[in-house]
Amino acid sequence: MIVNNSTETDPNPQVGGFKIKAGIIGGAGYTGGELLRILINHPQVDIAFVHSNSNAGNYIYEVHTDLFGDTELKFTGELSHQIDVLFLCVGHGDARKFLEANPFPQSVKVIDLSQDFRLKEKSSISYQATDNSQPTTESRSFTYGLPELNREAIKQADNIANPGCFATCLQLGLLPLAASNNLNSEVHITATTGSTGAGQSLAPTSHFTWRNNNASVYKAFDHQHLNEIGESLTQLQPAFDKPVNFIPYRGDFTRGIIASIYLDSDLSADEVVKLYSDYYAGHPFTHVTTRNIDLKQIVNTNKCFIQVQKKGNKVFIISIMDNLLKGASGQAVQNMNLMFGLEETTGLRLKAAAF
Amino acid sequence: MIVNNSTETDPNPQVGGFKIKAGIIGGAGYTGGELLRILINHPQVDIAFVHSNSNAGNYIYEVHTDLFGDTELKFTGELSHQIDVLFLCVGHGDARKFLEANPFPQSVKVIDLSQDFRLKEKSSISYQATDNSQPTTESRSFTYGLPELNREAIKQADNIANPGCFATCLQLGLLPLAASNNLNSEVHITATTGSTGAGQSLAPTSHFTWRNNNASVYKAFDHQHLNEIGESLTQLQPAFDKPVNFIPYRGDFTRGIIASIYLDSDLSADEVVKLYSDYYAGHPFTHVTTRNIDLKQIVNTNKCFIQVQKKGNKVFIISIMDNLLKGASGQAVQNMNLMFGLEETTGLRLKAAAF
Amino acid sequence: MIVNNSTETDPNPQVGGFKIKAGIIGGAGYTGGELLRILINHPQVDIAFVHSNSNAGNYIYEVHTDLFGDTELKFTGELSHQIDVLFLCVGHGDARKFLEANPFPQSVKVIDLSQDFRLKEKSSISYQATDNSQPTTESRSFTYGLPELNREAIKQADNIANPGCFATCLQLGLLPLAASNNLNSEVHITATTGSTGAGQSLAPTSHFTWRNNNASVYKAFDHQHLNEIGESLTQLQPAFDKPVNFIPYRGDFTRGIIASIYLDSDLSADEVVKLYSDYYAGHPFTHVTTRNIDLKQIVNTNKCFIQVQKKGNKVFIISIMDNLLKGASGQAVQNMNLMFGLEETTGLRLKAAAF
Amino acid sequence: MIVNNSTETDPNPQVGGFKIKAGIIGGAGYTGGELLRILINHPQVDIAFVHSNSNAGNYIYEVHTDLFGDTELKFTGELSHQIDVLFLCVGHGDARKFLEANPFPQSVKVIDLSQDFRLKEKSSISYQATDNSQPTTESRSFTYGLPELNREAIKQADNIANPGCFATCLQLGLLPLAASNNLNSEVHITATTGSTGAGQSLAPTSHFTWRNNNASVYKAFDHQHLNEIGESLTQLQPAFDKPVNFIPYRGDFTRGIIASIYLDSDLSADEVVKLYSDYYAGHPFTHVTTRNIDLKQIVNTNKCFIQVQKKGNKVFIISIMDNLLKGASGQAVQNMNLMFGLEETTGLRLKAAAF
């Protein structure tokens, strides 16, 4: 492999007064790769290390082959504590184990992309650390990192549980109703996800021959993201106790989630539109419209589009976002920006793929 | 264009005692083409003519290019009354106009693939004809051609209104409940259709650049097929008066419809499975299962698969079929078979595309 | 799993005077499945057994899920010698091993879909058998099963080496030139194959996330099928000794191969067209045209379309066929038909998927 | 349509000492949209106007719907001369007409994305202008805007003819050989393009139903880009007079071109690799490798990857790039950066779509 022309100038000239040193655990997976694609162009981040057990010593671009020509970074099997933020891009269950086995100083902020700390009852961790050669017990408590729900808390947080992809898409479609106590009937949701939502491991349902031109339902009524969605809705509307019916589909595309949501409501069309517009007024990535939307409008961006309609006695919402960006790594960087006092959109004005 | 090797032997040797002479109006469109693909291999059909105004004089294979090598038939601009059955593959609204302008003898059975005669209040037509040089008024009355609902009536019918594609898929998912008076709550349906459902005319939503890797909702709660679905359900369960909510999606595949359907029910899982299995026991194309299904299992066949589950207090149904076959031209041939006393499956044991 | 409505009538009523009893080894793979899709509707075949070590005892439709409703056959781990023909749908290298370990009576014809016996120097096998309790050495000698090259020999053959998919597509594009001693310059070929060409095993290049909307080259100049192509060309034109350059591509579709081929030639356009038309005049599946062709015209059929042009001093050929049908299982049945004296097209008039 | 949260802060804070005022003609097409996606995030560009006759008065995001939330710009039917650079994103033939009908001051630089000025004999234009109310004849002479060929000339140029998409991909695959006088045999090229290469107009070959899972050849040996390729090759190697055979394919993906190229050569593998690496050493977007590449590695970036191999006596090259970026709008901005003395990569470090 030949990199004929390494980038000699720093692609990320320092704009503000500082650079955030970032470490990444599990850098060889989809969310790790997507995080790298963002961070190598983020003007206020230096990547301190990208950890991968299976790829230690290899160039980043040997795994994330699109990054050839962009970076000479290599994966490492070693960890450094000299960082400001640690991103955990490991499998569900492995984030908690990693932090227990590898205590980082409390000064290092953590953003976890797994589901390990999303639910309130599992949102903290205690582990044995060493402080000035003294064994001590330390703990971390995680804030649910959905900026449209918890922005102020995120700004103060040291540890973030980054929301799930379906969970982000569906919550963004429902939060304004919950915040105004307008969730008063059963909720009906169908959502279709791209193949990247299932990760890079090989499975019969990720085989091209099977998935191309195909569609299928899975985990109907049982998807694990319903739990975090439920917690967020009752955070805003504690009395909400109606069923949320969720039918997830596998789509034959790679990126993005499209959700259609409806429920009974006495609100008028204008009231619903105003409610959503007001709720998201200060949020730079979530946009409300009454026009027809389609999935590709947001692919390869950190944006979420929400189409709001009234159909008979139903509020009808369509919510679209990129599962790897607003649904994972993009939102992780959005959270990092908030935690470090940066403009929320820094490094996240991504060119849409569009086609 | 060179057909180097015309088929010299009759590909459809006469098996039973007769051949049905078929005429096709609107043979250049998707449903016309699909009908031709079936009929040229149907052992008891001779194609008398394939009418197309725009393509008169051209070889069939110049439009339906996959038929090159299979037939030397040409489109014609002329009509012949020397047929047993007439298939109308024209646009919505044009079937009624065609029959008014071109009265065929009553001895010619008609199978209309448009929506013109599907609803009971529009299911008949009167027109001026000429009988032994005497002007007379004739009329035709259409039977709704869903064999799983009306098989005995179809066998006796002279005129068939072939159901819509979504309408077929959704009714097959609901008929057993209606037939047993078990539709007792609001019904929630989401269904995704392939691009052939929109026909061959060019439109922004049929542009490859737009549709590839995309997904979108259209006509939510308003799809025109809801009317014929409603008539069938109340035919079986006259008291049914609950809303049927239907969210149609455009999928980024070419063939097939997948529908997910749920409603509240006190039936047990076993009861639901038995109910569906019993209802479809005598029907050769509609198959009930408790296994997970996926769209491509039925693509390029005349089959419908129905997956039945109980989830909490909900009956949950997934229904899949090929919109051009069981949802259009295949069902039209199935109806023809029934009308002419043939085995229902004749000419319809099609090899699935599978991949 | 419930099969609510088993097919009570024989879907394959006997037409001629006999039924061929067929056994299938390796029935759980892609070519095995495709063979089953053809044979269950073949009017003169009874499937005696479908062998699969990994799926013994399972219903066929549990693996080839599209066959649900079509057959109640199960995979078996046992072999029977009471058959007329044995299809080997196993991996390359395993066909030879299977025959050595499981000698079948010489009266059983063998059609092998692997590459084990395609090349002349490897086209026979000897093994220890038992004849009337006496150990004997038996042997089988295989005929290369490309009907457009070897039809008369196939009719006399007891053992067929079914050609490779690329090999079939490229040979059909070149045979008329070789047969007329018109291969007189270097040959340039690029061909793109669908994902089914790589079989059903999971691999990074078969992952939907990777392959969707992607394209890539593999085995450039080195593809193993070049050997069997070379043997066929020199069978017809022994003096041919020019390089055949072949660049294979992976396409982001599931079925089909499209090849573009050119070489220098003094032949006129008319001469080339005549040459191809004459060569394929008696062959029912291979059709020559001067119109533009596209891959989907032949998907899900046993046909090969060949577009012939002259461009400057080059003969320019485009050849398309379905890799699983004319490139594998369809051609295997075509060979069986020839071997047993049936009409060559029996059971192979398949409805094109078309879209 | 509601834009609930307009971007209040300037997304493009001025970094260097100036902002380039840009006007766009034909902003509603694919290349116009892609240019807008780049320029709204380009740190040293202000978009002065986006001209569209058919969309005057509409928001940009009504056409380029992915830009909703990113910009409140509208299309205009009016032109302003108060700009530094004018991008022409109009159809072939219309760029020349536009400049004749709308003379801009000579101080305004022009970058034309059509083919009107690419060939040397057509590379200049004269038109009637008005200078201080005096009618004068002015002229513009265009430089071929391929930075890897003409970077120094581009830096000095006032008018750029932006190369064609295929032309860029193929030239980048061949330039190092021409520059070293190593094009000494016939050249063989096959290249496949995505659907965006054909623009947004509706055509049968851009219909999703037709193109999905399909492949086809067009304009074999006759593609119009061969002319500009030929001029560039002889600019570097004036004696080159061998045929360049080019077979273009339509692929069933939206973005990107993949080309495979070979020719006879006495160069060793190492020599070829060195030759390519040296040639592109100073060019930030074109990267040379000996690893296997695949199309999606460069989709949604301005990069070109070139895989170099020696196969027998052939040099074998694979070249991949995004037809709308490096093959059109991205390269146009690259040219603008060079013309205005900016770092070549400014605004062009785009996140790859990757999947």
Keywords:
homotetramer, Rossmann fold, Dihydrodipicolinate Reductase, domain 2, seven-stranded mixed β-sheet, six-stranded parallel β-sheet, 9 helices
Description of the molecule:
4 copies of one chain form a homotetramer. Chain A is an alpha/beta fold and 355 residues long. Chain A has 2 domains: 20-141, Rossmann fold (3-Layer(aba) Sandwich); 165-324, Dihydrodipicolinate Reductase, domain 2 (2-Layer Sandwich), CATH 3.30.360. Chain A is built from 9 helices and 15 strands. Chain A has helices spanning 30-39, 60-63, 94-101, 147-156, 165-179, 208-211, 225-236, 269-279, 325-339; strands spanning 20-25, 45-51, 85-88, 109-112, 124-131, 134-141, 143-144, 159-161, 187-193, 216-217, 244-250, 257-264, 286-289, 304-311, 314-321. The first copy, chain A, has a 7-stranded mixed sheet. In chain A, β1 (20-25), α1 and β2 form a beta-alpha-beta unit. In chain A, α1 crosses α9 (325-339), α4 packs parallel to α9 and α5 (165-179) packs across α8. The longest helix of chain A is centred in the middle third of the chain and has 15 residues, at 165-179. Chain A is globular and about 65 Å long. The two termini of chain A are 31 Å apart. The relative contact order of chain A is 0.14. Chain C binds chain D through residues 188, 190, 192, 194, 209-210, 212-218, 220-222, 243, 245, 247, 249, 251-256, 258, 260, 262, 292-296, 299, 309, 311-312, 314, 316, 318, 355, and chain D through 188, 190, 192, 194, 209-210, 212-218, 220-222, 243, 245, 247, 249, 251-256, 258, 260, 262, 292-296, 299, 309, 311-312, 314, 316, 318, 355.
